[in-house]
Amino acid sequence: MILSLRTPGRNDPCWCRSGLKYKRCHLGRESLQPKTIGEVISQLNNQFSIKRCLHPSSPSGCGQIIKAHTLQKSNLLYSLADQTNHVLTLYQHQLNRSLTPEPRKIGINKASTFSGFCNRHDNDVFAPLEKSEFLGTPEQCFLVSYRAICHEFYQKTCAVATIPYQQNTIDRGFSIELQHEIHRQTSIYIAGLTQGYEDIARFKKIADGHLLGNARVEWKHLTISFTGEVCIAGTGAVTPYWDINGKTLQNPMNTRANLQHLCFGIVAGPEVGTIVFSWLWNNTAIDQFIATLMSIPRHFIPSVLVQYVFANIENTYFSEKWWLGLSTDQQHLVTQLAIAPTPYHANLPDKESLLVPWEITNIAQV
Question: Which residue, 96, 111, 113, 282, has most beta carbons within 10 Å?
Answer without folding.
Answer: 111
